[in-house]
Amino acid sequence: MDLDAFDANADDLVRRAGGKPVRVASKSVRCRALLERVLAREGFAGIMSFTLAESLWLARSGFDDVLLAYPPPTGPATRSSPPIPSWPPP
């Protein structure tokens, strides 16, 4: 990982956000250390995750602002749903 390029991209995102906080999409940053690095920077706030299993894993890993982008279905749809897989995948 080129950390100089990573940091430059983070700076550019914050600049383009024009003072609004940037929520990191976890599908774009698949490394816990890099998520920690970017969230320690001014201008970033929280993570948007893409599965319930990933959200739970992130929360258990110490991230306290996790938004689940696609909440799982509820009600009758869940009766035939497969179990939630573990995260990260093996």
From TrEMBL:
Molecular function via GO: D-serine ammonia-lyase activity
Q: Which SUPFAM superfamilies match?
A: PLP-binding barrel
Q: Name one GO biological process term.
A: D-serine catabolic process
- The name this protein carries in UniProt is Amino acid deaminase/aldolase
- Can you name the source organism? Streptomyces haneummycinicus
